[in-house]
Amino acid sequence: MASSVPPPPPAIALDGLAKTFPGGVEAVAPTTLTLEAGRTTALVGPSGCGKSTILRLIAGLETPSAGGVDIAGEPPLAIRRRGELAVAFQDPSLLPWRSVRGNVALAMTLARRPTDPRAIDRLIDLVGLGGFGDTRPGALSGGMRQRAAIARCLVTEPRLLLLDEPFGAVDELTRRQLAQDLPRIWEARGTTTLLVTHSVSEAVTLADRILVFSPRPATVVADIDVPFERPRAPGLATRPEAIALAERVSSALAEGRAARERSLAAQ
Amino acid sequence: MSAIASEAPRRSWRPPAAVLGVLAILAVWELSARALAGAYLLAGPSDVTAYLWQNAGLMGRALRATLAEAAAGFVIGNAAAILLAALALLWPRAERGIAALALLVFCLPLVATGPILRVLFGPGPGPQITLAALAVYYTTLVPLLVGLRAAPSTWFDLVHSYGRGRLAELWHIRAMAALPYLFAGLQIAAPAAFLGAMVGEFTGAERGMGVLTIRAMRALDVEATWALAAVAALVSMAAYGAFGWLARRVLTEAPPVILAAPGGAATPRRGEGLARIAVVTVLALALWWGLLEAFGVNAFFAKRPDDVWAFLITAPDAGENRATLFGALAETAVYVLPGYLAGLALGAGLAVLLTLLPALAGAAMPVAIALRSVPIVTTAPLIVLVLGRGATGTVALVAVMVFFPTLIACLHGLRQAPGQVLDVFDAYASGRWRRLVHAQVPAMWPAFFATVRIAVPAAVLAVTVVEWLATGRGVGALMALSASLSDYGMLWSAVVVVAVLSCALYAVVAAVEARVLAIYAAEQGR
Ligand SMILES: Nc1ncnc2c1ncn2[C@@H]1O[C@H](COP(=O)(O)OP(=O)(O)O)[C@@H](O)[C@H]1O
Ligand SMILES: [Mg+2]
């Protein structure tokens, strides 16, 4: 098979997607929106609002209680079956009996790709874990584990990348470095990326579009376009227009919370 | 986590403490032997060594025979455990049924199963191998059932996110996550297989350690009895140690300590429980009947369920049969209950005491672990030799059989008190006693109850062996008598009644456990 022309990244359509858990917890209110192919969309919202649930619904790991998900005209299972999806779960979920290299290699095995040791080591270096390839997760810090999980995500060259707070435990300095390096990978390949984060500045520097969610059940309270050119300059976050954008996101978050409180008080 | 006490810090190897402990035991042993010389009770380490030296050929042949049987039984029993666990995984609804049926079979009294297997197999190692397999499969099955589910759901999400299904789950996640649990089972199984083989030899074999043991006991050959017990103990400790070593080489984490199926959780509603018992009973009866029919064994040796029913209920002399059997059971109960309770109390009590004296605990733990691996039943002739054929010997044997697993389980349990909770106690500068009562003892309950349950079949095994071999009382002796008189109706009935009573006792303990854990260890109970 010629791998010279990679398949185009998929667009994602959520059609009235909603999730209420069996216990009665309504996590996601009916949501209809489209995520453009090849772009990075950030989902920002208070913790517990249902961001992870949306991500899991898109991956097809959770069944919607209403509505559906459509990835390039197919249900999520199709893209999963082809090994073209990768998810960085909120918990790094590395297998403790495998080394960092073994964990990254596992993704290739699961995606039915031939294991490519050079690609694996390149990614381990890229996420700053060079020299830790043979280390088991138990001996790594939380941030290092998350970086290993990111390497595992990228090694299969996915067309759709779902990242759930991938930098939550990563220290500030490394996070900035990763924010520089990682987008290059998915920009070059034109991956459709979904980034769940609670960090406004991360959303502004990494995303092309920011969806701001209300507290649970998740509803979109703001849909903000991020007009900065790519590749993003290292100092972007400190530029006045980036700061202005971040303030817009923050006030949308605050507005979402206030609106939810008003509606609760009205009941 | 309920009965699963993952050993957070790897069991640290303390050569000085362990070596000192062993040396102390050897010294006490030798000195008492010297002091009691002439009483024909004790042979010290020097006597044992001399005996082994002089009879190396004989002992070597016997040991080889027993080891071969134990190894075959070990492989078969553990393979069966793995197959059953796989079946439970493929068919989750059947898991409880499989576990209950497995427990029932595990509760079959080995001493009586031995002669039955003897007539079914004829001469040769068949019965010994089968008993060895029966002695090991349950203690491997239980941790495996837990281990195959001991993975957080996100690991499965990872597999699913690449579009892979249950086979990949099994291969990449479950099998690997279960490995430490499998090793925990195998480690306990290694000495248990040796025990099973020896009990098989007790009940009529041509060669092996068990045969020599019986002969030495009948001849009141003190040195041979001690030498055989010492070899059995050493082999068991070596097997236990070898699997521990292997586990440390293969695993990235310490094997968990699992003694019995996690209990306490998910008590079924009464109707459900009864339905389950009914299903398991029907299955057991069908299996029993089907196996005998399938192999077409002679109805004189191989009693079917209806034969046992007739023997105990409908036959003209059924009343007499019942009186004999239940009379023997009552006699056994008088020995087994005090021994069982004493073993539990002493084990738990010493564990608590050692926790108050941490320095001593460090030295006691390796010794206790080493002795726990000794299949006490194989040393039954010794205890009889020293304590006599009366009540004391029997009660002591049962107590010792229960004591070591309880001690170790409780020590592990006491260590399970969460560090942060203990920190809170320390922050208030509470004394050791308060820490113990409010944090450590509650943390001990799940492990304690797990041993209380699994000690039921262990105690039954101990008491029936010693009654069979030595005391001439109780249900063990009745089984021996029935076997020698070819009274297969009585033998089969005794096996069935003992197994059912053991299971019932196990269930009673499980019910008490559920109540206690609901109060003391809500989040540990589930
Ligand atoms: N499997 C589940 N069962 C029941 N409730 C759940 C489950 N998963 C998440 N929830 C609930 O759904 C809500 C949203 O959770 P989540 O999507 O993880 O939030 P976020 O990622 O935004 O922090 C929370 O209230 C959470 O408790
Ligand atoms: Mg989340």
Spans of chain B of 5+ residues with little confidence (pLDDT < 50)? Answer: 1-11
Helix percent of chain B reads: over 70%
Largest sheet geometry of chain A: 6 strands, mixed
Please report the distance between the alpha carbons of the first and last residues of chain A: 60 Å
Distinct ligand kinds: adenosine-5'-diphosphate, magnesium ion
Shape of chain A: globular
The dominant shape of chain B is globular
CA distance, first residue to last residue of chain B: 6 Å
Class from helix and strand fractions of chain A: alpha/beta
Structural description of this entry:
The complex is a heterodimer of chains A (267) and B (526). Chain A is of the alpha/beta class and 267 residues long. Chain A has two domains: 12-84 and 159-266, Rossmann fold, CATH 3.40.50; 92-157. In chain A, 38% of the residues lie in helices and 21% in strands. Chain A has helices at residues 51-59, 76-81, 100-110, 117-126, 142-154, 172-189, 200-206, 240-266, and strands at residues 12-20, 26-35, 40-44, 66-71, 85-88, 160-164, 192-197, 209-213, 220-225. Chain A has a six-stranded mixed β-sheet with strand order 5-6-7-3-8-9, with helices on both faces. In chain A, strands 2-1-4 form a three-stranded antiparallel β-sheet, with helices on one face. In chain A, α3 packs across α4 (117-126) and α4 packs across α5. The longest helix of chain A is centred in the last third of the chain and has 27 residues, at 240-266. Chain A starts with 11 loop residues before the first strand and ends with a helix. With 526 residues, chain B is mostly helical. Chain B has a single domain, classed as MetI-like (MetI-like fold), CATH 1.10.3720.10. Chain B is 79% helix and 0% strand. Chain B has helices spanning 15-35, 45-54, 56-90, 95-106, 110-121, 126-147, 153-161, 166-202, 209-218, 222-250, 270-295, 305-314, 318-356, 358-372, 380-387, 391-415, 419-427, 432-471, 474-484, 488-520, 522-525. In chain B, α9 (209-218) packs antiparallel against α10. Chain B is globular and about 65 Å long. The chains are: A alpha/beta (267), B mainly alpha (526). Chain A binds chain B through residues 56, 59, 61, 77, 79-83, 85-87, 89, 91, 93, 95-97, 106-107, 109-111, 136, 138, 156, and chain B through 152, 154-155, 157-164, 168, 172-173, 176, 179, 251-253. The structure holds adenosine-5'-diphosphate and magnesium ion (MG). Adenosine-5'-diphosphate binds at residues 21, 23, 25, 27, 45, 47-53, 216 of chain A.
